[in-house]
Amino acid sequence: MKKLALVLGSLLVVGSVASAKEVMPAPAPAPEKVIEYVEKPVIVYRDREVTPAWRPNGSVDVQYRWYGETENKTKKEDTDGDWAAGRNNAGRLQTLTKVNFTEKQSLEVRTRNYQALRGTKGDSSDDQIRLRHFYNFGNLGSSKVNATSRLEYKQNGRDGGKKAEASVFFDFADYIYSNNFFKVEKFGLRTGYAHKWAGHDNDNTVERALVNFESEYTLPLGFSAELNVYNYYDWHHDKLAYADKKHEYNGELEAYIYQHTPLYKANNVELSFDFEGGYDPYAWHQHKVVDNGSGKGERASYSVYMLPTFQVAYKPT
Predict the structure, then answer these.
(1) CB-CB neighbours of 89 under 10 Å
(2) Do 167 and 133 form a contact (C-beta atoms < 8 A)?
(3) Cys-Cys link to 281, which of 176, 189, 242, 252 (CB 3.0-4.6 A)?
(4) CA 281, CA 206: separation in Å to the nearest integer?
(5) Any signal peptide, and if so, which residues (predicted)?
(6) Max Cα distance, the chain (Å)
(7) What pLDDT is recorded for position 98?
């Protein structure tokens, strides 16, 4: 009996252990990661132009002009001073260099050198250098009015007349109606101050306040036009030549018409016929300061010109 009880007890112990193992849950397998691939369409703009990044740039323009004689006379040979008063018997070499430092700031340097073509009786002493610095402030607030400042220094040859000027131009061109036949390129007011002098003392010194109207237009068939009205008020350090005054109001009107007709073009070379003409300028003064040869003076003077030319232009880039 005792052996039977031991055997039964062993069976019970083994059975309880076996039943306990069956009750324990099996470990759950880790869930598989699901990777989804989403295909998105790629849009290629074949006709889209990508604007390159801005970088400093500039240009150099070189021109040569030849001035003949007026009825076989130069300005010095015309003792009456009533006909050959303009530029005569000279060649002019002009170099215009423009450098754009930033999108808003640029510098312009222009030099003019004259050479007498027949003997020494030309206008070779009228050499000139002009420096201009521009800064574009952009539009004023939410308006379409653009503001650009200009600092200018100009000096004639042989220690001649000099001028230092500071001004701001307010351009209203975006408010003026334009179309494919008539386009307003420039239309606005310039206000500023200028100091003019000659030599190294106060003689011939002038202080000037200015309010100018300036405009440029593009017309069909290669035509363009320019209209400017300059208004000055001058303070002279010396009295005027024909008036016992030191202060005066004066003004000028410039009206030009231009036409450009290309005749031949190959690669970077272009031959064209160009025409320009108009008032250059019509000037008026408060006092009689214009020398008319009578010793009394006049209040107004004008110059009208027409200049047809054939021009060959070469652009390296």
Answers:
(1) 27
(2) no
(3) 252
(4) 20
(5) 1-20
(6) 167
(7) 97
Report helix, strand or coil for 289.
coil
SS3 assignment, position 143: coil
Query: Residue 4 has what pLDDT?
Result: 45
Tokens standing for 243? 């008036």
Asked whether the beta carbons of 240 and 248 are under 8 A apart, the reply is yes
Q: Which of 317, 282, 281, 313 is nearest to 300 (CA)?
A: 282
Q: Strands of 206-218's sheet, edge to edge?
A: 57-67, 90-100, 105-116, 128-139, 146-156, 162-171, 183-197, 206-218, 223-236, 247-266, 269-285, 300-314
Instruction: Quickly tell me which residue has 């070499």 as its tokens.
Output: 93
**Per-residue pLDDT tens over the stretch 22-76:** 455 666 666 666 666 667 676 666 666 677 888 999 999 998 888 877 666 666 6
Q: Say which amino acid occupies 188.
A: G
CATH fold of 57-314: Porin (2.40.160)
CA dihedral 115, 120, 125, 126 (to 10 degrees): -60
Q: Which two tokens stand for residue 292?
A: 């008319």
Give the other-Cβ count within 10 Å of 60's Cβ.
Answer: 11
| Alpha carbons 53 and 102: distance in angstroms, whole number | 12
**Entry pTM:** 0.77
Q: How many CB atoms lie within 10 A of CB 202?
A: 9
* Contacting residues for 293 by C-beta, under 8 A, at least 6 apart: 80, 81, 82
Contact assessment for residue 312 and residue 273, using Cβ atoms and an 8 Å cutoff: no
Select from 207, 184, 211 the least CA-distant residue to 194: 207
pLDDT, mean of residues 102-114: 95
Question: Which residues fall within 8 angstroms of residue 153, CB to CB, at 6 or more apart?
Answer: 130, 131, 162, 163, 164, 165
Question: pLDDT at position 14, please?
Answer: 44
Q: Write out the E strands in the chain.
A: 57-67, 90-100, 105-116, 128-139, 146-156, 162-171, 183-197, 206-218, 223-236, 247-266, 269-285, 300-314
What number is the average pLDDT over the span 259-278? 94
